[in-house]
Amino acid sequence: MSEARLNALELVKEKEKWDDVDISESRSRLPFFQNIGQPSMSWPRPSILLSIALVFSGCNGSKKTGDSIRGELALLSKPAEARSDADLPAPVGIQRFCGDCHELPNPASFVREVWYDEIHKGFEFYARSGRTDLHPPPLEDVLKFYRERSPAQFAFPEPPPLDSEWLSRFDRESFDWKDGNYITPAVSSIRWVEFQPEGDRRLVVTDMREGSINSVTPAPKKTTRTLIDRVGVPARVTPCDLNEDGRTDLVVADLGSFNPYDHALGRAVWLKRDAATHDFQSITIAEKLGRVADVAVADFSGDGKPDLLLAEFGHRQTGSIRLFTNQSEDQRTVRFAQNVIDIRPGAMQVLANDWNRDGDMDFATVISQEFECVELFINQGRKFDRHRAATGGDLTFGSVGIELVDLDQDGDQDILYVNGDTFDNNFANRSHGLQWLENVGNLEFRLHRLLDLPGAYRAVATDIDGDSDLDILVVANLPTIVYPTLLNERSPASIVLLEQIPDLQFQVHVLERGTPRYPALEAADFNADGKMDFAVGVQLFETDPPSSPASKLPRLTFWWQK
């Protein structure tokens, strides 16, 4: 047995506990795929607006071509002092060992002092994996390679000041609730839903820490809330009519645990509306899964019935994308046949769309962990062919989510791709921000970098200024303790508006700073006055000091446009 593997095994013996707060580290196993075709190898050459050493940048509509998406995104995280050394190729042994399950980590992804722990963790993963097919290089050689090529510190320049003109267009209103003792909020999603057959619209708000699914009817100074149900640890809800009775139901993605670890507590839960009372009845559709992060409802089998597609994020040894094909014969009961589409961990979202316009329902997904990518799964009847739309720089990219929108209004669906997850190790990365994947046809996408934003977590496209083009709202979500500490000292941006101006350019307006605690965002004309409003949901922590601005945030904040 090699000395490096012996060293890794010794580390495992010394360290008995796993870090259960880590949701982005790699699972040491080879990626295999079930029931899918081969990925497309004719990926587009991307374009991106680079903004080295700037925290904020707007897309100027240029269509620069680079050698690869991953190369250009990786460059975003490189401080000037590290760029030349970090670009030197790694020795073959390090390339093969450290880049086997995922992209070779970029030395500039972390500051120098962090690499000691990260490299030891990588060797530990390999020792735990049970694999013996690789030849680990000496641990001290890997440490030397990464530490010599990494920066001593990251530079996060001061973000722009608050935009007073845009702030003057909104009235802000706090909204909160408690059922018994107050539970510190951890809002995971906000969704504007039109309920049938009534036709009324409400926000459906999920709170992971409360386990609550809530119906919120927004109105300036008259907002009301009703508890729909409590379902484990809800990540998202999907409106649908699962039993096709004309009434809007909800399907809940239940993570099963607040902190990430490998388990079989994840579920998909159907909140079925009663025909007489319109109350919701909770019915478990799928269970004994890893952490379920999202559910898409669409007719993937082409038989006219709604099927379910689950993003089982899992953790390290669990995780998949699963299709539940509807086998129901009437409205009284629902039955599904389950098929595993992809066994990789880390799927965060699944969004249905007919990408090749052949009449069969496809889907897009964003996968984090060691994969850090956006992919399309094209429905071929009995299988799905996988096509890569974008790849992050390396496994520190921090993919969080995607949004389907026709941003350039040319008649096809584009993708907004958000990356800013820091909850694996509390380190913000200079590559965090927002990308627009422009659909150029034939399942190819041109990548535009729109915004650099530490902790970027959710983006929604909407016509906020009423000029008939689409602007973008972006929120950030950072932990209480985030490194480098200089970032918090500079009052990072929490809410940013990208206003679209002529020639598909975007002008940056900072609406809030100093309280980046927003994992949830929704925009719509909530009060039907002809102007777009938006709402943000907060995630707080017990480690937030009572005197901090973040600790005073309400569960929801409405931004009413005047």
Characterization of this structure:
With 562 residues, the protein is mainly beta. Helices cover 12% and strands 36% of the residues. It is built from eight helices and 28 strands. Helix 1 packs across helix 5. The longest helix has 15 residues, at 115-129. Mean pLDDT is 85; it is low at 1-86.
Q: Tell me the span between the first and last alpha carbons.
A: 70 Å
* Cα radius of gyration in angstroms: 23 Å
Strand order of the largest sheet: 1-28-27-26
Determine the structural class based on helices, strands and strand pairing: mainly beta
The level of helicity is 10-25%
Shape: globular
Summarize the structure.
The protein is mostly beta strands.
Task: Please specify the SSE layout and strand pairing.
Elements (H helix, E strand, L loop, with lengths): L2 H12 L54 H8 L3 H7 L5 H7 L16 H15 L9 H11 L14 H4 L2 E6 L11 E9 L4 E8 L4 E6 L6 E7 L3 E7 L8 E6 L11 E8 L6 E10 L2 E7 L8 E6 L7 E7 L9 E7 L4 E7 L8 E6 L5 E7 L4 E8 L7 E7 L8 E6 L13 E9 L2 E9 L3 E7 L8 E6 L8 H5 L3 E9 L3 E9 L6 E5 L8 E5 L18 E6 L1
